[in-house]
Amino acid sequence: MEIVASLGKAMNKFNFKIIKPHNQSRLGKLSTAHGEIDTPVFMPVGTAATVKALKVEDIKASNSQIILANTYHLMLRPGEEVINLLGGVRKFMNWPGPILTDSGGFQVMSLGKLRSINEEGVTFKSQLDGSIFNLTPEKSVKIQCLLGSTITMCFDECTTWPSTFEDAKTSMELSMRWAQRSLDSYVERKGHAIFGIIQGSTYPELRQTSSKLLQDLNFPGYAIGGLAVGEGRDLMFKTLDSTVPTIDQSKPRYLMGVGKPEDIFGAVKRGIDMFDCVLPTRSGRNGQAFTSRGEVNIKNARHTKDPRPLDINCHCNTCNNYSRGYLHHLFKANEILGLILLSDHNINFYQSMMKQIRDAIKNENFETFSDSFLTKRSSGDIEEL
Amino acid sequence: MEIVASLGKAMNKFNFKIIKPHNQSRLGKLSTAHGEIDTPVFMPVGTAATVKALKVEDIKASNSQIILANTYHLMLRPGEEVINLLGGVRKFMNWPGPILTDSGGFQVMSLGKLRSINEEGVTFKSQLDGSIFNLTPEKSVKIQCLLGSTITMCFDECTTWPSTFEDAKTSMELSMRWAQRSLDSYVERKGHAIFGIIQGSTYPELRQTSSKLLQDLNFPGYAIGGLAVGEGRDLMFKTLDSTVPTIDQSKPRYLMGVGKPEDIFGAVKRGIDMFDCVLPTRSGRNGQAFTSRGEVNIKNARHTKDPRPLDINCHCNTCNNYSRGYLHHLFKANEILGLILLSDHNINFYQSMMKQIRDAIKNENFETFSDSFLTKRSSGDIEEL
């Protein structure tokens, strides 16, 4: 089992180095206290201190270099104090590499009527037992510190979509004041960092204002939040077109919650370095596999007797050892191993895609590679036997 | 990851060698077409061509040498023809070692009113969709052949408990006629075998008659069926006391569906060589862990902040890397990884126990080891922190 060489290797300084710019895209290396990260990078989501259905060994074998955990979920259960007592998220879940924690802002937005927001912060009801919690910038940053996060995210209000210009402006301005408070309460640690989150919905003017305000605070990295929330791919790309060029190009840029392979290609093209998304694991548990020829629903009866792997071009454990027929059987029989093998394949598909993206930037043929990858993806699944 | 050296190594002949007898216990080695098996052996149950929640790599790493699959479940879904088309159970599920298939007799008994039995065989309704299936000795043996089973079991009627002497006698006699028909329809293949199953409920006289009748047919191995079906440990041991000595001592003896660690020790003491049971995996999925100090319910709130492993004496991946606190969290959060890690631990606990049992027989101190192991098991879990 191949282990990422630098996983868990202690670095002194948080540092981002652009190894090779290529048009708007960049090949980079992020150094952290808990290991190095080759960018553009995809971060598997470990919501509740586990990447669902996968063992840490599987995550390592997929060459994942950093995973994401959720402040919101972990503060509710088991609670940041418990995790801190047990050594922080990394020790808790036995993950030696870097962790990025989101601040809870996105989940709080999703709660809708269960939450109320004011200048101080957010009060909300736990989805687990209805008990009342509150989050402020100070508290979110403190929780992320207790969790032992390598990269802390500012607490923000993730603006809902669609929003009027006025609502988006008010929301963004609140997030910018919270960014200042997040930064003020952040405790510097070697090789750790806090990222600012640019908001402003799909309004270029608001995005630019937000970007400028955050850069005045000189964060070590910048995220673009409030996208992939229903606005569609075209509007997301347009927003990136107007936002990314406003960000200091020496800093890592993280597009939160994105996304499908097609989204990632378009965002890398526009200069994004970091991604996270639940899609590969969630889809895997639903029987949907990502392949070089598009998505495959393994529950479909056409796979019953198919001896072929999910993707002949994939070299993951699932594709090396299991037929579509077997995977179909596991899903029909509600066997846990089906969820495991498909989640594992999907994470491997994503990480292999990211590796190819990095190689293409290195070789200065990203656009050609992107065209050929996406054309093949849209060609549809292999013929039924 | 340690891989059992002989797993999947082709052997020419089906052969059972007693390496060391020790009182009634025996250290042995079973050679099959698909690898060698050290006895006494525990066979994890892979009902639907997957040991629930575990990857084949996990099973190998636990030093399991043979697994069991179920004719009944596999004939219903995906069907023996599909599995045969996809290379047999072993290739289907990517397990290189030997497979033992039960004949369906036990599951058919469990169906109660959904089945009817006559001299020819059994007709039953599928638990999946209500469609009608039938099983006869000839059909069960043919299905097991299509599944590619290393060790085929005779089709029998697993006698319910309690049964009157007359009912148990009638049932046993039917099973004995079915054993002859099973053997007649079995196709010899190098390194493969078919085992007879001794029935007769808890009546020594019937067990002895059954044992004699089967031995007249000269099977390569003998199972004791119809136990661990509610009769209790004492009556099970008594039945073993009267049955085991009637079996040709040069042949492997398999006690079907057993059991708890305490059952296994008592049966090894009485000369049993092979075991299978769903307990380690089923308990694992229910949050119950087997430890050297008895069972632990990881869902219990006392484990919330506990940094200690399930069992300090266990060297499995789960105990090496995860705290009780983390495992507790995974179960409270309904995370699939909890099921994986506890199932994995339990299979490792069982296989480590079997290894210690074999070592104790080899060193002629099985009784002493048994006493100390079982005394410690009954001492109860470690104190709460």
Strand content of chain A: 15-25%
Summarize the amount of helix of chain A as a percent range.
40-55%
| Overall spatial form of chain A | globular
Mean pLDDT of chain A: 96
Alpha-beta classification of chain A: alpha/beta
Main sheet: strands, sense, barrel of chain A: 8 strands, parallel
Q: So what's the CATH class of the largest domain in chain A? A: Alpha Beta
Within CATH, the superfamily of the largest domain in chain A carries the name: Queuine tRNA-ribosyltransferase-like
Order of strands, main sheet of chain A, comes to: 4-14-13-12-11-10-6-5
Question: Largest interface by residue count?
Answer: A-B, 39 and 39 residues
Q: How far apart lie the N and C ends of chain A? A: 33 Å
Number of helices of chain A: 15
Q: What oligomerization state is this entry in? A: homodimer
Number of domains of chain A: 2
Question: What brief labels describe this structure?
Answer:
homodimer; alpha/beta; TIM Barrel; eight-stranded parallel sheet; three-stranded antiparallel sheet; 15 helices; globular
Notes on the structure:
2 copies of one chain form a homodimer. Chain A folds into 2 domains: 15-277, Queuine tRNA-ribosyltransferase-like (TIM Barrel); 289-369, no CATH class. An 8-stranded parallel sheet of chain A has the order 4-14-13-12-11-10-6-5. Chain A is 40% helix and 19% strand. With 385 residues, chain A is of the alpha/beta class. In chain A, helix 11 runs antiparallel to helix 14 (336-362). Chain A has 15 helices and 16 strands. The interface between A and B is large, with 39 and 39 residues.
